[in-house]
Amino acid sequence: MTEHAAPDIDTARTTPDDTGMTAPAGRRRPSRTVRTIRIAGISLLGLIAAAVIAFLVWANITFSATEAGLAAARADDRIAIRVDGDLVVMEPTGDPSPELQDQGLVFLAGAKVDPEAYVPTFREAVAEGLTVVIVRPILNMAIIEGRDFSTFTAAAPDVTTWAVGGHSQGGVRACTYAERDDVTGLVLLGSYCSLGDLSDRDDLSAIAITGSRDGLLKRDAADASRELMPAHTEYVELDGVNHAQFGDYGPQPGDKDADVSDDEARAKISAAILDFFARS
Predict the structure, then answer these.
(1) CATH number, domain at 251?
(2) Domain residues for 247?
(3) Which of 92, 175, 226, 247 is least buried, going by the fewest C-beta atoms within 10 A?
(4) Number of domain units in the chain
(5) Last residue of some domain: 59, 92, 112?
(6) Contact of 118 with 142, CB cutoff 8 Å
(7) Residues ≥6 apart with Cβ < 8 Å to 231
(8) β-strand partners of 162
(9) Rounded to whole angstroms, how far apart are CA atoms 138 and 56?
(10) Quick check: pTM over 0.85?
(11) Which mean pLDDT values do the consecutive 10-residue runs of the chain (280 residues) have?
């Protein structure tokens, strides 16, 4: 009887896997440790992505301007208001007072506050002749704002003398812009300088306006920060005014109740700002 040769089997090309089944040797399954690391890495990336999304959603939920205050400012024919991207530009429509001629203020909104909420704050100052450019910071967080100062001043090219200011966190960031030689003034509302050292700026006019009922301003930190300010800085505390009244966006968690009405607070703030610019 003729013997039949057994078929050639290339045993080098097959290997048993963990289940006892054979798989090509060149496609060996990754070890259990490698698989665990991969799963952990994918999970970590998922958590990071979720955290980023949550932050973006949170950052874009802002304190909105009250409709009444904004409508009253828009109806005021002494001023013109326009929105230019992330900027709210306020300009006088009549002849400015001699003290405010060609003066402008770049103002950074507080954290998560709609820039239009500060339109009522500067309504009277603008009516007197001050040009104000209110900035919506990147992601509504002034502390991470990194655009050049000229990005904001370009919105009002006729202004020749610029000051910078801000409310709360916006004021902290404004202090770093105030280090520039082309900035001649600094206006802080419910804020202080924790970034930037302005102590050697003898040529920089500066005012820090606070409220006696401000529940969010860190008093100890504000007092300690005075060493970073110009020696001639003016400090003004407005009786009865709280943190949120530097804008017009309603109550803010953590703040104290004000002892004065919003209209009275706004009149006090406007008077302090106008007095500052008249003397700058």
Answers:
(1) 3.40.50.1820
(2) 67-279
(3) 226
(4) 2
(5) 59
(6) no
(7) 199, 202
(8) 104, 183
(9) 11
(10) no
(11) 48 48 58 78 73 58 90 98 97 94 97 97 98 96 95 97 98 97 97 94 97 97 97 98 98 97 98 94
